[in-house]
Amino acid sequence: WLPGEGVPTTVLAAASGPDHSDGIMVAWMLPADLASDLAQPAPEGLPAEELHCTLIYLGDTSSGVDPETLVQVVSQWAEPLATMPGEISGRGTFQTPDGLVQYASVDVKDLAAQRSRLADMLDAEGIESPSEHGFTPHITLAYGAVEVPIFSEPIEIGGVSVVYGDQRTDIPFGAAAMAAAAAQAPTPQNVYAIVDEMDTNAV
Questions:
Q1: What is the mean pLDDT of residues 175-203?
Q2: Which residues contact 16 (CB under 8 A, 6 or more apart)?
Q3: With the C-alpha atoms ordered 53, 54, 55, 61, is the resulting torsion angle positive or negative?
Q4: pLDDT single digits (tens) 122-133
Q5: Distance CA 140, CA 46 (A)
Q6: Neighbour-count burial of 71, counting CB atoms closer than 10 A to its CB (0-12 exposed, 13-18 middle, 19+ buried)
Q7: Residues 6+ apart with CB under 8 A from 37
């Protein structure tokens, strides 16, 4: 989420930030191993499973945003995308009406451009962000005047999640999913080996 705009429901037990558990966002949820590396101690720190980088904040569930339309648009947006490499590099602090927000910076070359494309596609369906902030890619780590380490970690964004209140839908990038499937497909040598084994078993 953007600073001052909330965190998902399960964050509230550990983090001392504001309660926006009915919020809507499109975000990159961190892989478990990376999230574990970045997570900060409670009560100020967010739990590892909730660490994310928000692409677009869309208000809350009372805003009239249809979840099925939202998932459909995000899926269409994600279909042509390939994995986006980048890094987590540096840290920063936001000053918000609810207090200080400590974050790690996210540097991904094509992320801002693709986020703009998504915003345009959502606008065409009448889904607009109420946020008055510009896009600053970041991962909120903790709330309050706490010290957090400086991180430098390579990352790959291969999909996003639509979070609608306490519901989450994971949407992989289409081109990235196709590449992963192709990498796991049998090579010609493996196919021949399977055929040979079938022939042997048939004897």
A1: 54
A2: 43, 44, 143, 144
A3: positive
A4: 999 999 999 888
A5: 8
A6: middle
A7: 151, 153
Residue 101 burial (C-beta neighbours within 10 Å; 0-12, 13-18, 19+): buried
**Chain segment 57-98, per-residue pLDDT in tens:** 999 999 999 999 999 999 999 999 999 999 999 999 999 988
pTM, to two decimals: 0.78
Helices (H) and strands (E) in the chain, counts: 5, 8
The amino acid present at 25, given as its one-letter code, is M
> Is residue 95 within a helix (H) or strand (E), and if so which, with residue range?
strand 84-96
Helix (H, G, I), strand (E, B) or coil at 169: strand
The set of residues, in sequence order, having a beta carbon less than 8 Å from that of 191 and lying 6+ positions away, is: none
Query: pLDDT category, 16, cuts 50, 70, 90?
Result: low
Query: What is the spatial distance between Cα 49 and Cα 106, in angstroms, rounded to a whole number?
Result: 18
Is residue 71 within 8 Å of 79, Cβ to Cβ? Answer: no
Q: Are 34 and 52 in contact (CB under 8 A)?
A: no
CA angle 19, 20, 24 (to 5 degrees): 165
- Under 8 Å between Cβ of 25 and 61: no
